[in-house]
Amino acid sequence: PSAETVTLLWSFIVSVYSIGGLLGSSCAGYLSVRFGRKRAMLLANIPALLGAALMGFSRLCGSFEMIIAGRLFSGVCGGKLAFLPVYAGEISPKKLRGFINVTSSVFLALGKTVARVLGLRELLGTEDMWHVLLSFSGLVAVMQLLFLPFFPESPPYLLLQKDDKAACLKAMKQLWGEGNYQTEFDDLMKEKAITKGTKIMNVLEVLRERSVYPQLCTMLLLLLSLQLCGLSAV
């Protein structure tokens, strides 16, 4: 192929991950409510495994289409970042909730750093090993599929979405040990009373809701400004 075609294909391979991320994050809210936080994360690892397999075998087949499809599926899995911090915050005790909430960003940055190191030419960034590097994310997906089933479901989800008080208390004890969690349970009951009858909006409904425009504009301004701060270059 010509140099222009190679550049076009390379650019598309790089950017298709973001397209997958957009698709994954758009349905993350529905999945987390429909299946629960834990099961939604388990489901998100399926496209990650599929994407890793496609990119791993792409070198054997000599197919750039497999790399594109693999990157797309990996991006869909990346959309689970929309509900992973929610699950981490909901299963953590109240006194540690703020600390746990920031760990998602810390480990996201750590994961990027590890990927940069593995991508060095002295390690996996070689002509013979690049397909192993691209499929490395499948290892993380396998680990999550092995260990996540042993985690309990989120107590707020069990009470607010499933209305299962017994399962909520059981999950609290399993997560935080034996003790009296009546205060936390009462807080959840108050939240349930406040949010009763509140409709969960999808992305389009949020964009049409004028009452959330100030918050939405603030979030967009912060996220867009972050792209200009030089962090990506660092």
From TrEMBL:
InterPro entries: GLUT, MFS_dom, MFS_sugar_transport-like, MFS_trans_sf. It is found in: Membrane. Keywords: Membrane, Transmembrane, Transmembrane helix. GO terms for cellular component: plasma membrane. One of its GO terms (molecular function) is D-glucose transmembrane transporter activity. The chain crosses the membrane at residues 12-33, 40-60, 66-87, 99-118, 130-151. Its main location: membrane. The keyword Nucleotidyltransferase does not apply. It is a multi-pass membrane protein. GO terms for biological process: D-glucose import; dehydroascorbic acid transport. Residues 1-234 form the Major facilitator superfamily (MFS) profile domain. This is GTR5 protein. It comes from Pycnonotus jocosus (Red-whiskered bulbul). The lineage of its organism: Eukaryota, Metazoa, Chordata, Craniata, Vertebrata. The gene is Slc2a5_2.
